[in-house]
Amino acid sequence: MALKHSALHDRHVALGAKFSEFGGWEMPLEYSGVVKEHTAVRTSVGIFDVSHLGKLVVRGDGAVEFVNSCLTNDLGRISKGQAQYTLCCDDATGGVVDDLIQYLRSDDDVFLIPNAANTATVVELLAAAAPDGITVVNLHDRYGVIAVQGPRSDEVLRGLGFPVDHDYMSFVETDWEGLPVIVCRTGYTGERGYEIVPPWDVAGSVWD
User: Fold this and answer.
1) What is the mean pLDDT of the chain?
2) Cβ atoms within 10 A of the Cβ of 100, count?
């Protein structure tokens, strides 16, 4: 099966990236060396493409209650505009299918980001369990994800006119070239940082 490519693939090729396979996607692993890039994130800023991550939305009357019935964490513990780490488990065994982050837009709209290799399974499980009136839409190939991580991440985003300073595990919805973009204060680097979720068509211009 051919590997998928992010909307930024040609840019990574032009920059001389070294590639690796992640969950069926060919993604850049490094440009100039792991130590140099690790140091950049710790001392300045690193910008990297994680568009292989899944994206899906659960919408409809009672979406929050439905997601709570399927995933392990409780959306009732957070407010609109906040995010939460959670697990998708297999009903038959109790084993973990995937870990993911859920973003609470409203009681009727929950945005989910699972891992690339497990996105199809998470979508399938949720769609199979969804009652009438609840829709589960796979947006895997319709949005990119660009991580901006490090002490200077605010400076980079502020220079693009994106919102900053919101709390960790929260998000703000804004726009870029007239299209909606989600700016998330999430990430696992241990440094202050953000993950920008732009529509596929404008991911390249955001990256540039």
Assistant:
1) 96
2) 22
